[in-house]
Amino acid sequence: xxxxxxxxxxxxxxxxxxxxxxxxxxxxxxxxxxxxxxxxxxxxxxxxxxxxxxxxxxxxxxxxxxxxxxxxxxxxxxxxxxxxxxxxxxxxxxxxxxxxxxxxxxxxxxxxxxxxxxxxxxxxxxxxxxxxxxxxxxxxxxxxxxxxxxxxxxxxxxxxxxxxxxxxxxxxxxxxxxxxxxxxxxxxx
Length: 189
Ligand SMILES: [Zn+2]
What we know:
This protein is an alpha+beta fold. 28% of the residues lie in helices and 17% in strands. α3 packs across α5 (151-164).
């Protein structure tokens, strides 16, 4: 495993996570735990972040370009379609080694109305299929640097939306665990 990792990156300089610069809270957007950061060649930051409470699964976002990875499409890895830290760090490192985009900041935190509008647009924009589709907060991992809201906030919004738009979204107690299951309901046609 380690040998594979090193041989893959042998032509690129090895990047290591940097210490936090003193630029304030914008580096800790709400709802996102930033675990590691790498600098690209122009000093844009490549973030490895986690949104689940266990901090077990990770996403990668480059603050210079549009590079964003929330799912693992490498079938050789064993963790289905989610990225554990070592895999996420490897991808972030590889991206940082080649990206030349200039640094940008994390987007400004949207106000309450804007955040609600954004989140509802995402939920209601999910294509409906001919069967119900389970929804999890991980489905929104790619937007968390933009949304900047906690998991609790998102659950509350899903509950509110299910109450308003029961034709599209259901929120029901799970049969198997003490949690709520959210589903995008099948297309009515
Ligand atoms: Zn980039």
